[in-house]
Amino acid sequence: MEQFEQDMIEIDLREYFSIIWHRKWFVIGAMVIALLASYFISINITKIYQSSTLVMVKEDNGMENLFSEQLSFGMGKNDKVGTYTEILQSRRILTKVIEKLDLRDLETGELISIKELREMISISGGENNLITITVNYSDAEMARNIANTIVEEFMEENREMNSVELKGADKFITEQLAKTESKLIELEDRLLNYKEEHGVILPSEQGKVTLEKLTEVETAKAKAEVELKQSEVSLAEVSKKLAEEDKEITSTKVITDNPIVKNHQQQLANLEVELAGLKESYTDKHPKILELEKKREEIKNRLEEAVTEIVSSKTKTINPLYSSLKSNVISLQTNIIATASQLKTYQAQINQIKEELSALPEKELALARLQRESKVTESIYTMLRQKKEETQIQEAMKTSDIIVVDPAIASELPIKPNVKLNMVVAMMLAIFVAVGVIFLIEYLDTTIKDESDVERLTGLPVLGMTPHLDMIDHSQGYGRGE
Amino acid sequence: MFNIFKKNNKKDSRSLLKTRNNELIVKHNPKSPASEAYRSIRTNISFLSPDNPLTKIAVTSSGPSEGKSLTIANLAVSMAQNGKKVVIIDADMRKPMQHKFYDLPNFEGLSNILTSEIEFEDGLRETGIDGLKVVTTGTVPPNPAELLNSKRMEEVIKKAEKEADMVFIDTPPVIAVTDAAVLSNKVDGIILIVASHQTEEQMMVRAKENLDKANANIIGTIITKYPVSTKGGYYNYYYYYGNSFKG
After folding, report:
1. What tens digit of pLDDT does each residue of A111-126 get?
2. Residue B230 is nearest to which of A450, A473, A477, comparing CB atoms?
3. Cβ-based neighbours of A171, under 8 Å, separated by 6 or more
4. Could you tell me the pTM of the whole model?
5. Which residues form a coiled coil (chain A) (predicted)?
6. Cα distance from B227 to chain A (closest Cα, Å)?
7. CA-CA distance, A481 to B26, in Å (whole number)?
């Protein structure tokens, strides 16, 4: 029985093979047509070139990063790559790319849409902080340009965002510098005039000392004021940038009202007073003063921590792109609070010294005031000059936090169409279709094939089978016959 | 109908030729596998009823051009070669064929005998092959079925039987006309020709039904035009030796 079944299968396979074999020219013809068609279609369709560039996202290791990592359970890094990947294909960047490269539709001649461009590029950010930007375009050079321009535009954007607080500060300092300069000139003129009018007046020894002290404190105050103002301007700029991106940030009032912050602020003010008192009796290098200064730094640090906590908890999302902005907010807020308490101390000291001064004679007092003012303005001017220099250096140092590892290059060979692959696929398809058609024909062919059909349909015995005479070689014999 | 790569029209053009003598494979190529196939059929027929041998056999098919005449001719030659006396009566008055195999004229024949224009003996012709004689159709009459159903026809068959050991009668297709059904009662048995890859299954079933209605004794079928590889060899033999008679 088993043997019989095996025979059946064998005959079946042989039949299938012979069915295909009889129509082999049909299969071969279909293959040839498919090969030719796929070849000619493949070489005639638009070629697509691919260019890709590899960029690395720098890890920033500031205090801000420590915090965000803590809060997001170590997902901060990947999050950054993910966000950059999204931003790389954002409308903001792509619009700039289209305009810069003047990407136009070949048929309509209009600028291509962002959607179209987005379909041409694929950006994948994996682990290891690496992002690959791949561009498929019908022109090899343009594909390279698109890839590189996307990265350039993104770096530009990134740099701008990172240096936003410096911009505000720079503007403020430049303004102040001009003002202070004219004020200084005016004061010097006035001092000169006064001296000419009233002759040379020498202030008393006591007045001289008091005056010097006042000058010193006022200079410190003025410096603190500039610092405060600069911080406020920077904060405003950063806030504006964040608001543009729809990110809420905590207002200064909320931070100042916080009891911990208030406490630190009070401590800081007390310390300043104490420090000022000590400075009257000791030099700057005295251990007591150094100790107090150290303590002041400590409190400042604690204040910063407190502010960080408030800002981090109040800011809704931890977006890596804005992490630098956020760290700016924190340091600026801390600065504002610290400077504000400093200012208070200085103001108190100034008032005290002024009282002492009022005891001096009229003329001496007027001269002293002029001298004092001129000195203060001069030192402010010097400070501003210095600050401007600093800001410029800082701005120059601020860069984008992505590095181009491999810039895109123009490829010589198109990636699409893959002629060989298309031909292989077409050939396989042709074989499948041809075999399918053959079996379909065989299935639809209801003619009688052999004795099994006859017996199945009529039950009549088959006396014999004669070959198709056209298909037989009559010279081949079995060796019988006459 | 889906035989895309087969040259069907070749057959028709050939039927227009005057002579088809070269198709007598058994005569011209006795060693050909095809000749062997006819001999095999001859043997099978003789073994059908050894005690009461069949002597009058009609051959028909469901449709035209399935190879009736060719099979009869070759079978007859094969039997003649075996020392038997054979008479072929061509009763296919729709499409006379037998005379072409032997290069005979067809001016007088069966129809003339049936209408008593000539005697049977005058219509019986030599074929150039020992032991094989043939009665051609003769003038094609307007009413073949009536002629074939006549008493004269029975007499013609009887006379032929006396002349030979074996009588073959070539008939028109059984579905198209009633001639074959009419003749089937006047013979010992009828063979149904089936052309491989040509005869539709339904046509074959109808052919058998028609013959059954006429109470015909169908002794079996012969499959013709079986496709084989031109290279010969094992595959060839597998088909028409291995599958010989299974009745």
Report:
1. 888 888 888 888 887 7
2. A473
3. A233
4. 0.51
5. 177-373
6. 5
7. 9
